[in-house]
Design a protein that fits this description.
184 residues; alpha/beta; 51% helix; 16% strand
């Protein structure tokens, strides 16, 4: 018997597309799906020609309720010797942050996070779960602790967006009625 939380939320998953990244990313995505999420990654579920990738990424992030980033090692920094992640992940997090989407970062413990993701985590704007790629059961436990709150964040944000839009419509309607009354 499988039990899934409802409703299903569409989330953009920012992750690497290489074989090495997918070896870790695919099992993590399956864990995410168990929590009632429909996952979307451009290059995996959504295909796009090279010249349309940026537009498709932006469109899919906009359509998603939230973004979950799976931070895996991409290259070792020659100056510091620290592992860094793929540049696209920073860009996709930036797009989601810019349009105020809920964010969750799942970070391989070997990677040094920098840029905007690091700032968001340090300022407690974004939750983060560090994981050991050789023991994903610990990540499963971490997800069970944080995902219910993350789902609530998505639901509250969605509800708030609805009420904000409804408020704008009502205020706009009142302004039109007031303008007509003044002109009369």
């Amino acid at each position: 018997i499988s039990v899934y939380p409802i409703p299903f939320y569409r989330v953009f998953v920012s992750r690497g597309l290489s074989i090495e990244d997918r070896t870790i990313g695919d099992p993590i995505v399956e864990m995410i799906k168990e929590w009632g999420f429909k996952t979307i990654t451009v290059g995996i579920e959504i295909k796009a020609p090279d010249e349309q990738v940026l537009q498709k990424v932006r469109e899919e992030i906009r359509r998603a309720y939230a973004l979950i980033a799976i931070v895996t090692p991409r290259y070792r920094d020659a100056l510091t010797g620290l592992w860094r992640t793929l540049e696209w992940l920073h860009s996709e997090i930036g797009i989601a942050f810019g349009i105020d989407k809920p964010l969750l970062i799942l970070k391989d413990k070997r990677v040094s996070l920098g840029g905007l993701p690091s700032y968001l985590v340090s300022m407690k704007q974004t939750p983060i779960i560090e994981f050991d790629p050789y023991n994903l059961d610990e990540l499963r436990t971490g997800l069970s602790a944080i995902i219910p709150g993350f789902r609530e964040w998505i639901e509250t944000k969605t509800r708030q967006e609805f009420f904000d839009a409804l408020g704008r419509i009502i205020i706009g309607g009142l302004a039109v009625v007031g303008g007509i009354a003044i002109l009369s």
